[in-house]
Amino acid sequence: MKAIQLFRIYHSFLLKKWHLFLYLILMMCAFLTALLVIQYINQDDAKFRIGIVDHDGSAETKLILNSMGNGTNLGKDIRIKQYNQKQAQQLLKSKQLEGYYVFEKDMTKTFYKNGNLPISVYTYDKTSTKSLVINQLTDSVYSRLMLSMGGGLTYTTLLPEADKDDTLRLLTDLLFTGLNRTGSFDYQPIQIFDTSSYYVVTGYLASIFIFALSLFSILKMNQAHALKSRLHMYHFSFEKLTLIRSLFTLFYTTVWTVLGFLCIMQFLPNAFESYNWLTVVIQLVYYIVMIIGWLTIIDLITFHWVNIVLKIILAFMVILFSGQVLPTIYFKHLFNGVLNAQPFSFVTNQILEIILNNYILDTPITFYLSFVVTAIVLLVIIVWRYRR
């Protein structure tokens, strides 16, 4: 029987079982949507909205406000905006601000006179995590302000002939260096994945495997009936049906993979740049082909309970031991690092890095070897089955 006819048989069966296919699509969409919603809620909850009220209005406090900017140089989740006293109080009461700073009147004069900076901090309460963080941030900012302003005070003491413009220029340099943590020295930050973003990406990868396995199993429902009714007398009929079922699953899984990736790129905050598309395509194609390849191998060589056990083992390798449930660092020392080095682990880590950090990992030789081994094993099994 021609391959195109087998494709039509499976397509006809899928149309008859459209409710199962629709249920599978809705289940995957609901799963991915739930992860994105949780990530959005956690991201919004993690933001610190801080107000500043400037009662002093001096040139120095304006420099401080300019140095702080919108707060991003103090932390990626910190947003700072200037308000008047009434606005800040109302926003704090309505919990639209986590807190606000007040630069008291004559703050600059007090500093030049006594060496102190009278800055008041107002938070919604004194015990919540965000209130404690704001107070810690205040200590950090205050110490840097004192260093910067102290440098200005020392400058005017040592050079009494310096005019106001020279002093302001020096204060500008000191404040921008002191308040911008990346301005003091060059450093390479350690990137840590946000937990909710981590599980959105790994959940997307898990959904690809679940979709492929589910569709592969749904299509198998028609295979036993077809073999019993009219195909069992044809040579290589079982193998041909299995291969066509694999190609059919490969096509629809690829469609889901593309749609899912576009979805998380649209709604998940990410650092991905378009010039890395090729790497993403290679990783996802490899991931899908490896999954479908091993599902095909298992169905060609095993039956009944052995088939089920091997698919469970494959599920553990793809989902549990690849970092999609627990980070791969937990498996680093198990079995001499074999689990950490398996190809599905690399795909998970690479997709995480490229989406969240726009970083490409060095590809290990096992990545290519595993693909070649899978292709050879599948080809040998097909030839062996054909010659039987």
Number of helices: 14
Taking Cα atoms only, what radius of gyration do you get, to the nearest Å? 31 Å
Main β-sheet, in a few words?
4 strands, mixed
Structural class, from secondary structure content?
mainly alpha
Terminus-to-terminus distance: 18 Å
The tally of beta strands, per DSSP, is: 4
Which shape, going by the Cα principal axes? elongated
Helix content: 55-70%
Overall pLDDT score: 75
Beta-strand content bin: 5-15%
Strand order of the largest sheet: 2-1-3-4
Order of helices and strands: HHEHEHEHEHHHHHHHHH
Low-confidence stretches: 174-191
Oligomer: single chain
Q: SSE layout and pairings?
A:
Layout: H1 3-16, H2 18-45, E1 48-54, H3 59-68, E2 78-82, H4 85-93, E3 99-103, H5 107-114, E4 119-123, H6 129-158, H7 164-179, H8 195-231, H9 237-267, H10 277-301, H11 304-320, H12 338-341, H13 343-356, H14 365-387
Parallel strand pairs: 1-2, 1-3
Antiparallel strand pairs: 3-4
Helix pairs in contact: 1-2, 1-9, 2-8, 2-9, 3-7, 6-7, 8-9, 8-10, 8-13, 9-10, 10-11, 10-13, 10-14
Would you kindly provide a brief summary of this structure?
It contains 14 helices and four strands. It is mainly α. Strand 1, helix 3 and strand 2 form a beta-alpha-beta unit.
Structural write-up:
- The structure is a single chain.
- This protein is mainly α.
- Helices cover 69% and strands 6% of the residues.
- The protein has helices at 3-16, 18-45, 59-68, 85-93, 107-114, 129-158, 164-179, 195-231, 237-267, 277-301, 304-320, 338-341, 343-356, 365-387, and strands at residues 48-54, 78-82, 99-103, 119-123.
- The chain has a four-stranded mixed beta sheet, sandwiched between helices.
- Strand 1 (48-54), helix 3 and strand 2 form a beta-alpha-beta unit.
- The chain is elongated.
- The protein starts with a helix and ends with a helix.
